[in-house]
Amino acid sequence: MNSHRHVSGEIPLVYHTNSINKSDIPTLLDSGTSNYYFANISLFMSYTPFDQPLPGLTAEKGLMFNIARKGSIKLQTNVNGKRRTITFDNVLYIPGFRSNLISMARLSTKEAKAHFKDNKAIIRTKTGIDFISATCSELLYVVKIVSEPTSKPE
């Protein structure tokens, strides 16, 4: 069972009672965020660190976080038996987040559409190609990442 509690220095976007390994950070579709936020630095192909972290503010009143870097990530997913490679640009690296967040608002600016059926969400391009599949778990849509980059950016 999930519990929500505030841990000093971290924002509990998804808090599980068991400890979370960095490689186990879930990737979620998020209809409430306007940016792509990722906590797993190993997913970044390239990034630019900021001289000083930039402040970010959550929708929950008074909670702030630090944006440490901005870059690009490449993910591989499996949608209906087909492997898809997706590149996201202008991704913000947020150390301490408990989830990677894919912004539905950002996807919609690219004219992608979400289709929901049988506890699943499929994100489809404007040309009809399904490129993200997510399964609903505890009212969160979790994207299964098939593979990650093998090396970290320098």
Number of helices: 1
| Topology-level CATH name | Cathepsin D, subunit A, domain 1
Distance between the termini: 38 Å
Largest sheet: 6 strands, mixed
Strand content: over 45%
Jot down its keywords:
disordered N terminus, disordered C terminus, 5-stranded mixed β-sheet, Cathepsin D, subunit A, domain 1, mainly beta, 154 residues
Can you tell me about this structure?
- It is built from one helix and eleven strands; from the N terminus they run E-E-E-E-E-E-H-E-E-E-E-E.
- It is mainly beta and 154 residues long.
- It is globular and about 40 Å long.
- The chain starts with 26 loop residues before the first strand and ends in a 7-residue tail after the last strand.
Blueprint (SSEs and pairs):
Layout: E1 27-30, E2 36-38, E3 44-57, E4 64-79, E5 82-93, E6 100-103, H1 104-109, E7 113-117, E8 120-124, E9 130-137, E10 140-143, E11 145-147
A few lines on this structure:
The protein contains 1 helix and 11 strands; from the N terminus they run ββββββαβββββ. It is mostly beta strands and 154 residues long.
